[in-house]
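Figure 6 in text form: structure in, sequence out.
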């Protein structure tokens, strides 16, 4: 028998992990769907044991052994999602938060508490991530640079290098391996929200921290707000300690929905990506469209610049939902300069390639012909589009 002939120990493909990870114990418990544990507290007649578990948590941030103590310290339903996401990203651990921004905040707090308040970051980032760093709301300071400038921007107090690839909303790609190399011993955080582990696993390319707005593809249905950081166990311990102390925990119902979302993630991402690639081709051939952005690694996001008025395109869609956010089963369109990146200073925004005529499309699972029909008629409603 070969080393990988045992089904229990053989490495599993992503599609298999997506439906099995975080559920390993269910069959033995006689369960099929994972249970939802809504407890905020847990009865225990052994307060000496609870004291020992809290001491152990305070020392390392490792998930407490034995029965849970209190909902802010950890929740079994949320832990299933964390286990599954770590498996998909190929990391030792993952720590879930109430939103993507709560997850990024926890990372900054971990580094800041170690006296490492300086961050190096590459634009564009999601608008609120840019804002959090630029405004220094958590006492951090940021140096913006391009990928080639990362090594030179590092300082003795640099605690973090942050990139998004493909980036929101321009879909610009960063050579993660090269940036990870430039970081030296400083942790590289990659926001992998757009690619998902289906298309890219940044930890394999040297990222120490992989961030998701789980609100997007991981949840996948536009009905759960969440964030998660996939990383090594040491960093995860610090993140759990910050989460415990600051309280940005994920609700167990959200944990359940995210675990369910992961089970269809590979199928959803591949199907929506095929449609997105076709829409990108058609947009690129359309005279009303000035430029199309579609990443080399693929994905379900397409950005494009129009010759006419982008607000009229938003006002003109009938099947596509005009809404911020992304990664849902239905197709969404938004105008980054008005919504997702509005909070970024206009000059910085334009400097990052987020022009005033750029539209961002999150392609869902509808039929490609229906989507194209809607896009084509919305483009016709642009002022000046009558020229064509
Ligand atoms: C939405 C988003 C975030 C923020 O996540 P929330 O869940 O809304 O807090 C961070 N990064 C990217 C790339 C996003 O698209």
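Output sequence:
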């Amino acid at each position: 028998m070969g080393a990988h002939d045992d089904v229990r120990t053989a490495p599993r493909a992503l599609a298999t992990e997506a439906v099995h990870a975080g559920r390993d114990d269910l069959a033995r418990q006689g369960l099929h769907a994972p249970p939802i544990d809504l407890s905020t507290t847990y009865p225990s007649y052994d307060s000496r044991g609870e004291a020992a578990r809290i001491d152990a948590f305070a020392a390392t941030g490792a998930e407490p052994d034995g029965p849970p103590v209190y909902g802010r310290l950890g929740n079994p339903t949320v832990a299933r999602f964390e286990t599954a996401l770590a498996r998909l990203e190929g990391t030792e651990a993952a720590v879930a938060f109430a939103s993507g921004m709560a997850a990024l905040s926890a990372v900054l707090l971990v580094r800041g508490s170690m006296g490492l308040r300086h961050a190096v970051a590459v634009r564009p980032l999601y608008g609120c991530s840019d804002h959090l760093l630029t405004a220094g709301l958590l006492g951090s300071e940021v140096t913006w640079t391009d990928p080639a400038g990362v090594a030179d921007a590092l300082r003795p107090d640099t605690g973090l290098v942050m990139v998004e690839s493909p980036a929101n909303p321009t879909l610009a790609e960063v050579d993660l391996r090269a940036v990870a190399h430039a970081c030296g011993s400083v942790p590289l955080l990659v926001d992998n929200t757009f690619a998902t582990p289906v298309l890219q696993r940044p930890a394999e390319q040297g990222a120490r921290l992989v961030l998701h707005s789980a609100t997007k593809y991981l949840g996948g249905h536009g009905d759960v707000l969440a964030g998660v950081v996939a990383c090594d166990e040491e960093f995860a311990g610090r993140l759990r300690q910050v989460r415990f102390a600051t309280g940005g925990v994920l609700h167990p119902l959200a944990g359940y929905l995210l675990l369910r979302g992961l089970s269809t993630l590979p199928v959803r991402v591949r199907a929506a990506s095929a449609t997105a690639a076709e829409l990108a081709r058609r947009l690129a051939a359309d005279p009303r469209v000035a430029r199309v952005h579609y990443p080399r690694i693929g994905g379900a996001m397409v950005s494009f610049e129009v010759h006419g008025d982008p607000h009229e395109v938003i006002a003109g869609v009938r099947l596509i939902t005009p809404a911020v956010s992304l990664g849902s089963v239905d197709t969404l369109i938004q105008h980054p300069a008005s919504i997702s990146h509005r909070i970024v200073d206009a000059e910085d925004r334009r400097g990052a390639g987020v022009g005033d005529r750029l539209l961002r499309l999150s392609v869902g699972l509808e039929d490609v012909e229906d989507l194209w029909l809607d896009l084509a008629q919305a483009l016709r409603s642009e002022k000046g589009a009558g020229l064509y």
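Caption detail: Confidence is low (pLDDT under 50) at residues 384-388.
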